User: Fold this.
Amino acid sequence: MLKVFLVEDESVIREGLRDKIPWEQYGFWFVGEAGDGEVALPLIRKLKPDVLITDIKMPFMDGLSLSEIVKEEFPKTKIIIISGYDDFEYARQAIVVGVDQYLLKPITRAALRNVLLELKEKIGQESEQKDYQIQYQDEMQEFEQFSLRRFFEKLLDGKLSVKEIYEEAARLSLEIAAPCYRLLLFSIGEKGDGLPKGSRDNFMRKQDEVFHYFLRYPQYILFRLNVNSYGVLVKAEERQMDELAENSFEHIQKVCAPEEDYMSWYVAVSQSVERLSMLPQCYMEANRYFAYRFVMPNTHILTGKTLAAYVSEHEVNRIGDVDFAQMDPEVIRDFLSKGDEKEIHDFVGSYLANIRHGLKSRMFRSYVFLNIRVAVETYLTSLRADQKDYLEEIEQAVQSAYGKDEDFFGYFVAMMQIAMRIRDQINSYQGRKLFKKALDYIDGHFSQESFSLSLAAEQIGMSPNYLSAVFSQNMQKTFIEYVTEKRIEKAKKLLRQTDKPSSEIAKEVGYRDAHYFSFVFRKLVGRNPREYRAEKKPGTS
Assistant:
């Protein structure tokens, strides 16, 4: 029920309205009364009524002054002015204040009933519109994340001038100006080839818990880096940076560390910079640290300090000091499976950092050469790659670099690039097949009321997070954008070609709530379904 408060200095009128109007029958709850505006105001602030009925002329504080204060503090409250004066100036002032209705005394029960029911309907419509707006914004949030990802891709690649950075940030409603910046990279992944359903659900909850931490605080801007990794722009005063980084590490560790049986997690952070134009250097630094996750799988927090300690501990001056466990071919295969082409140079540098002195030995170099080649060929074999697609390139890489100390880094990079190119070709082919399967499923089921990203992902054997990322990457629009457009296009066709009521069409295209369907339709088309049908003739678009 809606709450109503009455202010009237004439006690006979006040008591008559209070006792003779069947408030509950009209959908209202009479919560209080007062004899003047001064007494009423603190009560109104406490009770927060939906509707205020007030006389216009009262001692101490009149109805217009009270209405003005109430509208300022509670803009959603509807106000009915009652007056014994049929005076245009009073009515004009009431309109200026924002009063919703103006009734002349004596007030009949029928007149007040009509006004109350009208305001009740108006409040209901406004509340409904607000709920629809919130629902629509929640659904479109995926689009905002996609736009955010594209913005940071350009920013971190150094493709935007400072002016363009601020212009694009403004379009995305991002508050990006700050005295100091840091870049934090993290990944949260599944261990093994697949998780049991219970573990998968828990994995998604843990991932969301990490995301929500960064979304709670204005000092962080969270964005997707690629399918497997995320970035966080940290922006604050320099003196706050270490604390913000430490808090981030602690939260991710608190959420993920207890689940390491089926989750892998890593986080890296750059040093601070004072300019947005220096963020590409931040990204290079953080990415260099981040690449060590393949070489240091048991070190989850990757900073300049942790890496310096690792290199110092594992640095060798002679072959006898080499820890061959650090050269496990699985490290290379793991990188080829999960890494990104942009990370190749940093990965190779991290892999070789602790054995660079050993590479002075020809015998040791030969061992490392062979170790890399075997790891690459074993990995490509596991992908069922055709040998003719890569053996010749591998032989050329070996011939051009073998035995030349100064070319060893280049040889390693070339081998990684060959393997990743073949991997991406195979994944692209398989991905296209899988994506076509996803698209076919979406096109065949989008009009079901229960249809969702999670349902589609489950049906085609993907995680919702992965499907969302792959979908936006392939379609240049988000999953929910695509589904909404499909639904509205089908609705437009039905509105043009049939006489079905819009409520029936809403259900037919996947909307349980016909009013929400109308809201979304207006958002995308610019007019409601009834208006669209009225102006479109059969056969037009």
The CA atoms of residues 201 and 264 lie 15 Å apart.
